[in-house]
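Z., the sequence and structure:
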Amino acid sequence: MLFALLLGMAVNFLSEDARCKPGIEFVARQVLRWGVALLGLKITLDQVQSLGWYSVFMVVLAVSLTIGLGIVMAKWMGFKPFFGLLSGGSVGICGASAAMAIAAAFPNHPQKDRATLFVVISVSTLSTVAMVLYPMLVRWLGLDPMQAGFFLGGTIHDVAQVVGAGYSMGQQTGDAATVVKLMRVAMLVPVIVVAAWMTRATHAQSADSEAAGAPASRPPLLPWFAVVFVLLVLLNSLLHLPEVVVSTGHGLSRAFLVAAMAAIGIKTHLKDILSVGWKPVALMLLETVFLAALVYMLLLQA
């Protein structure tokens, strides 16, 4: 997705062409939503149950506190809470995919694509660094294979980097890291609900502030792509869909998200990304360090 983003930014001039705008907007919005919805095929209830209830609690707590930290620190730094949820969700859940899923539930805003691109670039870079450094860190900390898998799956941002780091340390560590990571991916749904609730609250405030005219229609509390996500999880859990269906869904999801990332890149100017300043960078670094420290402390208490 990072390569798609860079390629999209390289042909940014297409966003000024009236013939291209409808297609760019369609891919950046509708295709993105279908890519997020199809992520539901990656998760089954059996995978969640196999973690054990305390492990599930640890994942939920780590994701929730990371997002909470992001919202609080974003407000303290002078940003809107939306940016804190976007950055904290990407760090806490599944990197670039989470950033795009959460942004899809946000209201349209001139700065939304810029913020999404910045978060995608930052979280992809941090995830790659973590993939290299965290296996050395868990060896230094003396974690056993299961603990190492939980730490890697609970802290590295993107799914691909979790798989790479986990299986570089062995089959048992890789399996544990992958299952924990998929549990984090499952947290997308409640976080999208929070994003949709914040959007509804913003719409309600805008409607109340209007002196005249009909109030704007409020968006649904649970966007349709989140509903499809949940339905696919249940369908795959109860019916155990054929491998060809699941693998095809994975491939389509990846292709849709890559295409949407390229479209968002086309819509954004490089100078907009370079002008964000140091505060967003510091925020995402803080969230990353906080998540790693929290997961390690939770492992010590297990």
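DSSP finds 14 helices and no strands in the chain. The two ends are 35 Å apart (CA to CA).

Let me know what you think.
H.
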